[in-house]
Write a structure and sequence with these properties.
The protein has 224 residues and is an alpha/beta fold. The protein has one domain: Alpha-Beta Complex (Spore Coat Polysaccharide Biosynthesis Protein SpsA, Chain A), CATH 3.90.550. The protein contains 8 helices and 7 strands; from the N terminus they run βααβαβαβαββαβαα. Strands 3-2-1-4-6-5-7 form a 7-stranded mixed beta sheet, with helices on both faces. Helix 3 links the parallel strand 2 and strand 3. The relative contact order is 0.16.
Length: 224
């Protein structure tokens, strides 16, 4: 069993209508995009709530409460900072104290990240300073560290250069890092189709997401 000093943190935005998955919403509508993201939250909660690792939800905006989506009794902390880079840095700084040894962070828009990848990420931190799951769009959907190194400053977050620039910063800081197998975030309709295929092949169990995607197929929002 993993030590309780291990923390899995999920970066999550409150699913207000029109505020989540905005690129996807341009194709499928704000209601459908919100329903899908809410299903992600519920499925992630169900997957990891009983994990031997401590599960923490880092929530934005400040004061938002995800209880209606993830259930009661889960640890929620606010994301603090002006931009994503600062919010991620402050989250690591907050969690990597008081006995916490290793922190792995995932985004709520990658509910399919498998247990094997998360286990591998924590294991990599035994002898690396940082670990990543890169995404095919040039970013990453998982990052882990064992100390709160500032690997985010100067990185153009939200661009196709995120992972490349982050690697350059890691190298400049003299840090050892490891990249695991590339995956994806769910940002576009094509990503949803890839996720639906993983679910259909039982690669990952996301029952609430499956139900939403079935309704999309029924209404023609998702083909195939």
């Amino acid at each position: 069993m993993a030590a309780l000093a291990d923390v899995l943190v999920v970066m999550a935005k409150y699913p207000a209508l029109g505020e989540v998955k905005t690129r996807l919403a341009e194709r499928v509508g704000a209601d459908a995009a919100r329903a899908l993201f809410a299903a992600f939250l519920a499925d992630i909660s169900a997957r990891f709530a009983r994990s031997p690792r401590r599960l923490v939800w880092a929530v934005t905006p400040a004061g938002a409460d995800l209880t209606a989506f993830i259930g009661a009794g889960q640890t929620q902390i606010p994301q603090a900072g002006d931009g994503l880079a600062e919010r991620m840095q402050r989250c690591f700084a907050r969690l990597l104290r008081d006995g916490t040894e290793r922190v792995v962070m995932i985004g709520a828009d990658a509910p399919h990240i498998g247990d094997a990848a998360i286990d591998a990420a924590f294991a990599a931190l035994d002898d690396h300073d940082a670990v990543f799951v890169p995404t095919r769009d040039g970013g990453y959907c998982l990052v882990g560290m064992r100390a709160p190194h500032d690997i985010f400053s100067g990185v153009a977050m939200g661009t196709s250069a995120v992972f490349e620039q982050t690697c350059a910063r890691l190298d400049a800081l003299g840090l050892r890092w490891r990249a695991l197998e590339t995956s994806f975030d769910v940002d576009e309709v094509g990503d949803v189709a890839t996720l639906a295929d993983l679910i259909d092949r039982d690669t990952v169990s996301l029952p609430r997401t499956r139900a939403v995607l079935l309704s999309w197929k029924t209404t023609g929002l998702l083909t195939g």
